[in-house]
Amino acid sequence: MRSYEILEKKRNGGEMTPEELAFWVRGVTDGSIPDYQIAAWLMAVCLRGMTPRETARLTQEMARSGGTADLSGIPGCKVDKHSTGGIGDKTTLVAGPLAAALGVKIPKMSGRGLGFTGGTIDKLESIPGLRTSLPQEEFCRIVREVGISITAQTGDLAPADKKLYALRDVTATVDSLPLIASSIMSKKLAAGADAILLDVKAGSGAFMKTPEDAAALAQAMVSIGTHAGKRTAALITDMDRPLGNAVGNALEVAEACETLRGRGPEDLTRLSLELAAGMLSLAEKGDHRTCLALAKQALRDGSGFEKLCEMVAAQGGDLSVLEDPSRLPQAAVMFEWKAAQDGYWQHADAQACGAAAVVLGAGRETKESAIDPCAGIVFRKKPGAAVSAGETLACLYSSSEASCRAAARLLDGACRFGLRPPEPRPLIFARVTRDGVFPVCELDKA
Ligand code: URA
Prior knowledge:
Layout: H1 3-11, H2 18-30, H3 35-48, H4 52-63, E1 79-83, H5 92-101, E2 106-110, H6 120-124, H7 136-146, E3 148-152, H8 159-170, H9 177-190, E4 195-202, H10 211-227, E5 231-238, E6 246-247, H11 249-260, H12 266-282, H13 288-300, H14 303-314, H15 320-323, E7 333-338, E8 343-348, H16 350-360, E9 376-379, E10 386-387, E11 392-398, H17 401-414, E12 415-418, E13 428-433, E14 436-439, H18 440-445
Parallel strand pairs: 1-4, 2-3, 4-5
Antiparallel strand pairs: 5-13, 6-9, 7-11, 8-10, 8-12, 9-11, 13-14
Helix pairs in contact: 1-3, 2-4, 2-8, 4-9, 4-10, 5-12, 5-14, 9-10, 12-13, 16-17
Bound molecules: uracil (URA).
The site of uracil (URA) has 3 residues, from helix 9.
């Protein structure tokens, strides 16, 4: 087999055979195919696309390109969750413990944040003492005994994706549906769970700007998971505005605790309950309505919060900060961002809010940058609210007043105010299963 012929075939829009895909991914991983040929192949895929069968096989080869997690020592159905990333998205810290409290096993490998999106590992690391690089045996033991553990993704998971992603980044080929879907799902398949729930975001703070594009990505990923023999489903959810009130690592941990104690913001609570119900349903705990009722019960009776505490204790974290979030690291400077006029808050561009959080120190500009666990934003009002000139819309937290002022300028540019309230926007657009895309209102009636 010659890589030149594979390139020619892909350039002409042909479908690669399983043998060609295995050869290609092996060559990408061991370095025997040169970067210039890989880059040409990426562009050909970007322009010509891939069939669902071809994308599924590519993903399985990428998943097998390195180590895969062996979760066979954990009894019961193991369910993974993945969000395509967003601003203020701390649902893993709420939905995961709720589902685990109801008997689902959640072995969760998570990433760090880059740019305007946050990462669960950075959020967890704001809890003093908590370890996020767990050896495989310890990770499995905690999932077996507690029901949930969250650890940093190891470097040898899907190395083919690492290589392809680095080249996509510099060849204008990030933006391709089969390449995004195979990249995300190769790591999920290698992580070894039996079932996968995807939260695919749509809006100004997401990869996919419209619910239609998000649904297409979700369908591609659900098809990949199903081809690989994993029960896979997705929710299409809003990321046109930040989720919840808090953006920033320690601030988001505090908000997740409040939410698990029944005192969280309405949008975060609702989405977390739906995600927990989705995980329960993949673990065959009942139909959607039953699973949603179970999740609500675990929120009401505090068992979800207890489960988060058990996990934090098992990973060496200081439990007292969960009981009293004011003991989490605190920022040196707090600055109030205020409304300039009377009216309605019509829109908050989520990506720009994320950029403001990065300026405050809550996110990374490059992979190497350090983050400030205390930095971030707590919104006091949300888009849709009536506001008065001079009213505090958000508290900004950072190590310096200069960065607070710079972030406030970004928020001024990111938010729009007017005389009329905005059209309400759904929080959850649709659910995607192997059988199709279902608007959530239809589901609710089911
Ligand atoms: N996240 C990934 O892991 N890969 C992509 O291609 C996009 C988002």
